[in-house]
Amino acid sequence: MSRNNRRSERRLHPRIDEKLPIDVEANGYDFITTTKNISCLGAYCHIEKYIPPFTKVHTKLSLPVSNETGKKDLRVECDGVVVRTEDAPDKKGFNIAIFFNAINEAQRKRISQYISSILASKVLQS
User: Could you report the per-residue pLDDT of 66-79, keeping only the tens digit for each?
Assistant: First the structure.
């Protein structure tokens, strides 16, 4: 069994590979980027400047949702901490893992519902 399979089996909250707009504010810098993957506990994304692990960040995430009036973006804002920083494979910037350590339950539920809807649509497509 590969390391990634073991990791995904241990996860209590689903994580999906999804590119979503995210704004990461840290140490006076504002990084506008997209997620590589997301769960209701955190996000993984690419940035241009090094942010050391344990740095506190503020995030603003946009979740595209559809309802009876059309499509709109739901905003999720929370504080987090960088738990991992890696050199990007192309050596242009860094990939960071952010743990959402200060997120209210309504915001966490928005992310969880979004992930559930994506997973449900993938099941229907297969």
Answer: 766 767 788 999 99
